[in-house]
Every structure is written in C-alpha cells, then in structure tokens.
Amino acid sequence: MALGEPSASQPLLLDQYERLHALLDEISETASTDCSDTDLLKVAMEHERAERRMLTSFAAHIIDIDERSAYRKAGSQTVTNFVTSVLNRSGEANRLLNRVWAIGKFPDMQGEVLEPRFPETAKGVAEGEISGRNVDVIVEVMKKIPVAVDPADREAAEATLAHYASDYDPSSLRQLGTRILAHLDPDGTLTDDRDRARMRGMRLGPQDAQLMSKLTADLDPKTRAMLDVVLAVWAAPGMNNPDDPESPVGDPGSADPDALAAAAERDNRSAAKRNHDAFSALLRYALDSGALGGSHHGLPPHLIVTITESALRERAGAPARTATGTLLPIKDAVELAAESQQYLEVFRDHTSEVLYLGRAKRLASRAQRIAAVGRDGGCTCPRCTRSSFDSELHHVAEWTADDGPTDIDNMTTACGPHNRAVGPGDDQWATTIATDGVDAGRVVWRPPTSHPDQTRRSITPTARRGPQPHASRRPTTPVGWPRGSRIVRADGYRRRSTLTIR
C-alpha cells in the first residue's frame, strides 16, 4: 500500500495513526548511545514539540465528533462526557475543551469553517511552540478582557500573549497577562454588567485527605453586598459558635442580648472562622426552614447519611457518606443522627411505607429513593460520578402498564443523562440484573454495540475502574427492606442504616 492511501478495511486517518504508533514503538526501542549530550537535549525538545503539536489534531477530531454527535456511538451524552469517560480524562475535560475552543476551527451555521478564536495561539500550537498549559493561561487572560475593549486591541493582546508563550512559563505568562489587562482597562471603567455576568461563579472543590473542601467564588456586586450584610449579622462575635455550647444559634433576632454579649466575650475565633460558622448555620437554617421544598429527584431535601450500624453504635470506623457523595466523620454523623432518631428508628425497625409497589405506580416512592442511596451511593453507570441527589431511579426492566415493576430490585440509581441513554438502539446502553456471582442482584451496564472498543462488553459493579466517589457498590441489603427482596445480602456484609437528617 502506498504511503497516504487508505487500506481496504479502514479509513486513511486510522491507518495514519497505526503508522504513528508503529513509529512510536521504534522510537521507544531506539537506544540513545550514539547521541551526544547536545543531541539528547535536542531529542527532549523535539519530543516536547511533537507532544504540543498533537493538540491541533486533537482539537480537529473533537470538533468533528461534536458536530456529528458521534460521541453517542460510545454511549456518551455529550462530548464532555466522552472526553471524561471514554478518553479517561476525568478532572481535566473542561480544560482540554477550553483549549479546543481557543485553537480549533469551528464551522458556522452554513458549514463554512471559521478561523480559530485565537489565531496566533493556534499557529503557535500547530508549530509546537506553545504548550497546552500556556494555552490555558491565554484563555484565562482573554476571557477577562472587557467586552467594551476595541477588537483591534483584543487581537493585539492575543498576539502578544502568543508571541511570548513560546518562551515564558505559565506563571510568567500570567504576569504578562495581568499587565496587559491593566493597560487595556487601567481604571476598570470598561468593565460592565456583561463582563460581570460572564465572570460570576462559585466552585466547590473536592474533599481532601482531611475531608475539607475549598470554596471559591467570583461574586457580582449585588451578591457581595448581600453577603456582607448576612455575615455582619450571622458571623458577629458570639453567634453560631460550634465550640461554645451556650452560643446563640440560628436567627440572631431571637438571641438573648445578655447571652450573646457573654458569648462574644468568650469568642476567640478569627474572622474567617466566624464566616465559616455563619455559613454553616445559614445552610442548616435553610434545611430546617423548608425553603428547599418537599422533594428533589424524589429525595427529601435534607441530609441523608448512609452509615453502618456498628459505626453508629461504636462511633468509630470509616467516614459516613451523604446522598450528595460527601464524606462525614463518624462523630458528625452520630451528632446529626441524634437529632433525627425518628428517622433512624424507621429504617432500623422496617418502615411501614411499602417499598414494593408492584405494577401499580410508574414513579418510585420516597422510601425507595432513600433505600437506593444506601445501596448504590450514586449513579451506577460505569465511571459516572454523579451523586444520588443528582440522580433518578432507573427501571432495569422498562416500566409498562403490564410489565416492568416499580420494585426496588428492578431499579438502580442513574443520573438523568444515563437514565435517558438506556434503550434498544445500537448507540444506547442496556441494563440487566446479574443473576449469579458477587454481583448477583445488581445492575449490569452493557455499552452500546456501536462502541469503538468492543472489549468493553459488560460492566458490573465490581468491574468498574478505580475507586468511586460514591458509597460501596457491593450488593448490600439496606436496613428496612421487606423480606422477599431478591437482592441477596452476601455473608459477611455489614448491614447499613440510611438516616434522613432534618
């Protein structure tokens, strides 16, 4: 076959990537003994240049996949989901797609291919002069330029950043970007409501090894003004102090003035800690007040905690887990449980609410939704990290008037996109119930027959890749399930209690 011609079995592009992999094999097997020290440095530089250049072709392929909605053939609902789950780029999908957004050539409504949003950056990447991390910085800086800035000045800013990106590291390039922003809008008068609306946001980071989470936000002026007032009242010295059992809690208007003054004298918290404790008290106030309504995806809008009975009894063990996927130290879970014994007793002593609805209802009951929290811990589709609070109950055997019962063992937790992704088409997932083995009684997700990797034919709970951020997927019978449930609890598994915390 001549170079550049497609084989009879596959298109030219796949042939080219096969040759690329063959060349990479040759490179990895080639010794560097005949290279001088200078040659070795050149090898490393050429390797870096080649890796940078690959971003251009990656962007073109991702744009094509998105335009064709080809990601559906792999069982994905969006191109972001494809990058996350199929390409296994979880945690960096948004950053990668921002790079594609910056340097890719997108078609317009008529199908005409447009030039990249940041043409000089795209050129530098194509030549291997600009790294992906520096593309991230350029995108970050360009998004901060006010809408009112003259387009010519905007283009000049991008060209300047791209010019220096080949020599600067990300930190130095970001400093240059700060100087450019100051030059374009020295007194901040060009920034208007459009810019503030575009930049607003709040981001909650993952829990770290100490189970702490970082909350960062870009607040618009109105939100900042309201927050200032709230913190001035709820974070006042002496208010909502978890270290002081006599500190007034909740609505400051109902606090005894003398008790508040005494608590303020004892309060040695920093302003940051007072703000944190006020925020916690506000969240508790919102949960207790009923302001969140009566239901969210069939779950009560309260804290729902899954914990083993032994951990609850001994106040020790692995952290408990909430319906949103958050880990709670056992001490915190026990304290919350002490305030909601009515719910604890319901689930320990078998709720009177019927978990088996047979074929009478299409929708799962609240008790079934809460029971599924303890069993599934979140969306059960492989590699999905959506929590139970962001998910629904999916009927494994599709519900009809005559079939597909709304029984707890015919349902599994699935987020909205994956719930809708199940169907009979060759680009849809299929779900069944395992009948034997360690996953007996648990849902099995079968990838679409159109999936490009046909080695992924059947994925069970124990076959999922890596640790999941949800509760254990092991087949466990939650406390409170009626006898006769077909989901069998294997010997040695600890029973779990599902606590609903007001």
TrEMBL record:
Q: Name one GO molecular function term.
A: nucleic acid binding
Task: Spell out the protein name for this chain.
Answer: HNH nuclease domain-containing protein
Give start and end of each DUF222 domain.
52-376
Kindly name one Pfam family recorded for this protein. HNH
Q: The HNH domain covers which part of the protein?
A: 381-416
Regions of biased composition (Low complexity) lie at 250-259
Q: Where is this region: Disordered?
A: 238-259, 444-484
On the tree of life, the source organism's domain of life is Bacteria
